[in-house]
Each structure stands twice: as structure tokens, then as C-alpha cells.
Design brief:
The complex is a heterodimer of chains A (162) and B (450). By secondary structure, chain A is of the alpha+beta class. Chain A is built from 7 helices and 4 strands; from the N terminus they run ααααβααβββα. In chain A, helix 2 packs antiparallel against helix 3 and helix 3 crosses helix 4. In chain B, the strands form 2 sheets. Chain B has a 5-stranded mixed beta sheet with strand order 6-5-9-7-8. In chain B, strands 3-2-1-4 form a 4-stranded parallel beta sheet, with helices on both faces. In chain B, a hairpin with an 8-residue loop joins strand 7 and strand 8. Chain B is globular and about 75 Å long. Classes of the chains: A alpha+beta (162), B alpha/beta (450). At the A-B interface, helix 2, helix 4, helix 5 and helix 6 of A face strand 3, strand 5, strand 9 and helix 13 of B.
């Protein structure tokens, strides 16, 4: 194979962690590990490449369609390779009452992207309530949560991104 | 009732250094309740919980002891406990802090519950976005294993218990208990037709109890201090204290642990809670129990934040999310935002919900943008009624209550703020102009700009 899915190190991590995950479920219920297994794949690759999903399906003894079905149902799974940073801005009610629409507009201008668009570095999108409504407005960059945002704070957060 | 003087129980350690560690939790008497419960027969444990009047904190307010007693004793299959930490109902953000500040309180509740149910495996399902909370919870689970609380012999007794963390991946519907079970089984979150209820046919086809994080964190206190003590904190029908999540246009948003007779008004205005609205702002509307709860007007706030009391106002205590909207907020725009959420999160199984939720959203957008007609207003109510009529609450035409959750806001906003909807149609624009929201501020919490 020209392009192996995993490096040897990644393969080892994947195998060890998958074995641990499978031990959480009854022996005849391997497919229950689908969400954690896809999460593991995404942690290693940054997204869910088709050959990775097929591998997960094989290991969990289900058809690849089952893996695709789950991957496309949940918004945190990326079946397309996203930019390096996925920026999820909450624009639900409590955040909107503290100016989330302005925050989104600020980011659209700053990143030169419309909500829902991506480039190599950023994937900017609106998200639903992040259960942080008391510290609105808020956003997540990949899985890191930022709250009580002000324009200044947002600018600082982005200037510190590696 | 209210025979026990109010004190903070769930939030007692929040903000104290190391509150999340086993050491701190045990120093405050943690896991003594488990010791006590393990001395009782499982049936007796369930009876105590019934006597405590604990009701579920996940949304429906179902009596917890009764739910546990539905699990059949003679079923040969293993039994399971699943913890609902999906916390995705807009306006709700309490479980996040329990997991962050005091995960052992929930874990102790899990151990007691599993003992009562004769369950030996528990899955703790947390919404995918809770990264920090998942790390905290996993660390606490690891500590509990090391200390012999989980594992082959719970506190040295002949009772084994395994506890595993499962992380979701961004789908509100997985908070619905049967969708949660599907998700734990590794599938997309499609709610199941009921009956059978999870207590009989749940996870992997076996009897299962699904309880909310706060519900489980409440359990240890019933055994530590007594069922009578716990019941005495609340009303005749509902024991304990309650976490409410206050957000929207108030000076001090946040999670507050409150007695069950606190009114919505006091929560918003008392200095120890919300401390009122920023200068120059007045309450227009309040959602009392997460975004699916029918809205209250400024005249309706003298009502206790409690299941039965809110029911008399045709709304619900739900998940404890109280959202305050002030006079500058456009009700059409607020409803549009809520409607969009349900359209986004509908799983698509039932026609009224799959087709009705985006239809509501399109109509609301049209009205907000000044393109709506009187006929559109009629259609809006008609669409909402096809998903679920109102009142009463709970007669929806769909597999799960997401349908009701999507229709109730539409019915209640339209009934209570009809003039505002009509003004949009007649003036062919939003009467509040193009800034009907709080503007994004450079000085958070210093009051909204005028
Ligand atoms: C659409 C929908 C979403 C729900 N989301 C949640 C949730 O995020 N967290 C939760 O605890 N309960 C949620 N529930 C309620 C659960 O179905 C269930 O009633 C609850 O977990 C039972 O726990 P309790 O008895 O301890 O309250 C939701 C219900 C529906 C219909
Ligand atoms: S009511 Fe909506 S979310 Fe619930 S099962 Fe039906 S389509 Fe899915
Ligand atoms: S509305 Fe934004 S976090 Fe809840």
C-alpha cells in the first residue's frame, strides 16, 4: 500500500487503546465501541478518512456503512478534512442575548470566512448551545472551551494559537 | 413541608481548592453514605429514595425511587445504569459544574444506585464537547477504582461494579434517554418507540435505568442525612434542593442552588442570585426550564421554580434553565433562534418533527425579516399544532418529546406576544430595528451598552 493509514506508532496507539475500549463492553457487543473508536481515529488523524472508518468497522465486526452512518450523524465527527482549527461559535439564545451575533461577525471578518466555510487553517461554524450559557458568549476551538468573551479576549486567544 | 432548614448540599464544595479530589470529598464525609446503603437490603435502599421524594433533574421530574422500582427483579439479564450527562438543552449548564467541581458526589450516587438495582456496570455518557469535564470524571473514576470503591469488591463487600465513561459527539437528541442508549450501543441517536421502557428493555436489550447527573449527585445525601431530612428540604411532592441555571440579560448569571419555593422573580432580582438587570433594562419574558419550556411574561414571575407550581402556569421546571429576555429583545428573533435549534437537532424519524421544525424556522425568519403575512402567522400555529398541540403539555404526535419541545415555544411565544408578531407583519420589518440583541461587549458584565 502506497499510503498507509497509520505510522507504526499511531498503529500501536490505535491497537492498544481500541483493545482497552472493547474491554468496556460485553463480548458480543463490540460495535458499541463505535463512538469512542471513531473519536480515537479522529484524535490520531484529525479527521475520519474513509480507509480509517473501514478499519474501525472491520475491527468492530460491522459493515463500513455502520461507521459512515454514525460518523455523519454526529457534528463533532469530521468526514471531510477540516482546517487545523475548528471554531465553533455558540449563537443560541443565551449567547445571542450577550452579543453572539456580533461575535460571529467579528470572527467572519477576522478570519475572512463566512460561517460554515473553511480554509487550510480554520473551519468557522455556528454551533448549538455549549452548556455554558451563564458565561456567554462562548466558543470552542477544536475541543478547547473559551467563555466570557470580549473582542479583546477573542483577539488574544487567536494570537496565541500555535 | 420545608421542615428542614435550607442549606447548600450539591454545591457545598464548589470553588474550594481540590473539591474534585477523592481526598477532599472523603474528608467531608464522602462515601459514608455508600457504607450505610451497603448495610441495607437493596429493596430498602429503593424505599428510602422513594421516601426522600427525590425527582429526576434531567427534565421530566419523574420520581427517582419509583423509576428504580420498575426494574424487574426476576429478569435473568444483567441490569445497567446509564448516567445522562448530555446536558444540551439550551439554557442548561449545571451538570457541567457538578462534573468539574465534585465528580465524586455523582460517583457515590452511582455506586448506591447500582447496588439498589443489582447493576454491575454503569456507563457515564457525557456530551462530546465536555473535554475538561470528561478528564475530571475519568480521573475521579480512576481514583475510585484505586480506593476499592469501584471494582471487584465495592468497599470490601461481595458486590462488583464497573464504571465506564462514554463521550458523545455533538447531538442534542442523545440526551433523550432511548437515543442515549442507542448512542452507548454505538449507533446514531435515534429515539426508540416506547413502550417498552428502558427499565424493562434498555441497554443491550436489558433492564436499564437512565438518570441525570444531578439526580445521582443528590442520592448520597439521602443516606448521609436521612430520607426524612432530604424530603423536608422540599415540598410534599418533591424533595431536596435544586440547581437552577440563570442566563440571559441579568447582572449575575450563573448556577444557583435554591430551595424549591424560590420564585422566578426572586431568582432574577435578589442580590444573592441574579441581582436584577443591567441599568435601564426591564424584563420582557422568561423561559423557566430550558428552551423547550413555554415562556412566561414579566407579569407571571411570582411562581416557584418547582415542578407542580410551574405546571399551574402551563409551563415546566424542565432542566432548570432560566433565560431572561429584556425589553430590547425581539420575541420573534428569540423564537426563531430557538426554532432553528430544534430544526437542527431533529433526528428526522417522524414526519411532523422532521418537516415541521424547519418549516417553523423558515416562517419565523420570513416574519423577522419583514416579509411575513397574516397567513404566515396562521400557518406557524398550524405547523406547531401538527407537531404537538398546546395546552396541555405532553400530547405530541411524535416518537420522542423533542417534537413537543419544538412546538411549545412557538405556541407560547405566539400566544403571549401576539402583538409583536403582528407588528412585524404590519410594519414589514422588525419593530425593534436591526439590533434586537445585546451587542457584543468589550467590557463583559459592566452592563449592556445603551
Ligand atoms: C429531546 C430531549 C433531550 C433531553 N436531554 C436531556 C439531557 O441533556 N440531560 C438529561 O439529563 N436529560 C435529558 N432529557 C431527559 C431524559 O430523556 C430523561 O428523562 C432523563 O435523563 C431521566 O433522568 P432523571 O429521571 O434523573 O431526570 C431529554 C429529553 C428529551 C426528550
Ligand atoms: S420527535 Fe423528532 S427528534 Fe424525536 S424521534 Fe421524532 S423526529 Fe426524532
Ligand atoms: S446559549 Fe450559548 S452556551 Fe448555551
Amino acid at each position: 500500500m502506497g499510503n498507509a493509514l497509520f505510522s507504526p506508532d499511531e498503529q500501536k496507539t490505535f491497537d492498544t487503546k481500541l483493545a482497552e475500549l472493547l474491554s468496556h463492553y460485553p463480548d458480543d457487543r463490540k460495535s458499541a465501541a463505535m463512538l469512542p473508536a471513531l473519536r480515537l481515529l479522529q484524535e490520531l488523524k484529525g479527521w475520519l478518512p474513509p480507509d480509517g472508518m473501514e478499519l474501525v468497522a472491520r475491527r468492530l465486526e460491522v459493515t463500513p456503512a455502520r461507521a459512515y452512518e454514525v460518523a455523519t450523524f454526529y457534528v463533532m465527527f469530521h468526514t471531510k478534512k477540516p482546517g487545523k482549527y475548528t471554531v465553533d461559535v455558540c449563537t443560541n439564545l443565551s449567547c445571542a442575548l450577550w452579543g453572539a451575533e456580533d461575535l460571529l461577525a467579528h470572527l467572519e471578518q477576522k478570519l475572512q470566512l463566512k460561517s460554515g466555510e473553511m480554509n487550510d487553517t480554520f473551519f468557522l461554524r455556528e454551533t448549538e448551545c455549549l452548556a455554558s450559557c451563564g458565561t456567554a458568549p462562548c466558543l470552542q476551538i477544536n475541543e478547547d472551551h473559551h467563555e466570557n468573551l470580549t473582542r479583546k479576549k477573542v483577539d488574544e486567544i487567536f494570537s496565541r494559537l500555535p | 413541608m420545608f421542615t428542614t432548614p435550607f442549606e447548600k448540599i450539591i454545591t457545598r464544595a464548589w470553588g474550594k481548592p481540590g473539591s474534585h479530589s477523592l481526598e477532599t470529598y472523603q474528608a467531608a464525609g464522602g462515601y459514608q453514605a455508600l457504607e450505610k446503603a451497603l448495610e441495607m437490603a437493596p429493596a430498602q435502599v429503593i424505599d428510602e429514595v422513594k421516601k426522600s421524594n427525590l425527582r429526576g433533574r434531567g427534565g421530566a421530574g419523574f420520581p427517582t425511587g419509583m423509576k428504580w422500582s420498575f426494574v424487574p427483579k426476576d429478569n435473568p439479564k444483567p441490569k445497567y445504569l446509564c448516567v445522562n450527562g448530555d446536558e444540551s438543552e439550551p439554557g442548561t449548564f449545571k451538570d457541567r459544574y457538578i462534573l468539574e467541581h465534585d465528580p465524586h458526589m455523582m460517583l457515590e450516587g452511582i455506586a448506591i444506585t447500582c447496588y439498589a438495582l443489582d447493576a454491575h456496570v454503569c456507563y457515564v455518557y457525557l456530551r462530546g464537547e465536555f473535554k475538561h469535564q470528561a478528564e475530571r470524571t475519568q480521573a475521579a473514576i480512576d481514583e475510585a477504582y484505586k480506593a476499592g470503591i469501584f471494582g471487584k469488591k465495592v468497599l470490601g463487600r461481595d458486590f462488583s461494579l464497573d464504571c465506564y465513561l462514554v463521550r458523545g459527539a455533538g447531538a442534542y437528541i442523545c440526551g433523550e434517554e432511548t437515543a442515549l442508549l442507542e448512542s452507548v450501543e454505538g449507533k446514531k441517536g435515534w429515539p426508540r418507540l416506547k413502550p417498552p421502557f428502558p427499565a424493562v428493555v434498555g441497554l443491550f436489550g436489558a433492564p436499564t435505568v437512565v438518570n441525570n447527573v444531578e439526580t445521582l449527585a443528590s442520592v448520597p445525601h439521602i443516606f448521609q442525612r436521612g430520607a426524612g431530612w432530604y424530603a423536608g428540604l422540599g415540598t410534599d411532592k418533591s424533595g431536596g434542593t435544586r440547581l437552577v441555571c440563570l442566563s440571559g440579560t441579568v447582572k449575575k448569571p450563573g448556577v444557583y442552588e435554591v430551595p424549591l419555593n424560590l420564585t422566578v422573580k426572586d431568582l432574577i432580582f435578589k442580590p444573592e442570585y441574579g441581582n436584577g438587570l443591567p441599568a435601564g433594562r426591564k424584563v420582557k419574558a422568561v423561559i423557566p426550564g430550558g428552551s423547550s419550556a413555554p415562556v412566561l411574561t414579566a407579569d407571571e414571575l411570582d411562581v416557584a421554580l418547582e415542578f407542580e407550581a410551574l405546571k399551574t402556569k402551563q409551563t415546566m421546571a424542565g432542566s432548570g434553565g432560566v433565560v431572561v429576555m429584556d425589553e430590547s429583545a425581539c420575541m420573534v428573533r428569540c423564537l426563531w433562534r430557538v426554532a432553528r435549534f430544534y430544526a437542527e437537532e431533529s433526528c428526522g424519524q417522524c414526519t411532523p418533527c422532521r418537516e415541521g421544525t424547519p418549516w417553523q424556522t423558515r416562517l419565523l425568519r420570513k416574519i423577522e425579516e419583514g416579509r411575513g403575512t397574516h397567513e404566515d402567522l396562521e400557518t406557524l400555529v398550524h405547523v406547531a399544532s401538527s407537531i404537538a398541540p398546546y395546552p396541555p403539555i405532553g400530547l405530541g404526535n411524535t416518537i420522542c418529546a423533542l417534537g413537543d419541545a419544538a412546538a411549545l415555544p412557538t405556541h407560547s411565544f405566539f400566544q403571549k406576544f401576539k402583538d409583536e408578531f403582528i407588528a412585524h407583519v404590519e410594519q414589514k420589518k422588525c419593530p425593534l430595528g436591526d439590533k434586537p440583541w445585546g451587542a457584543f461587549q468589550d467590557a463583559y458584565n459592566k452592563g449592556l451598552p445603551q
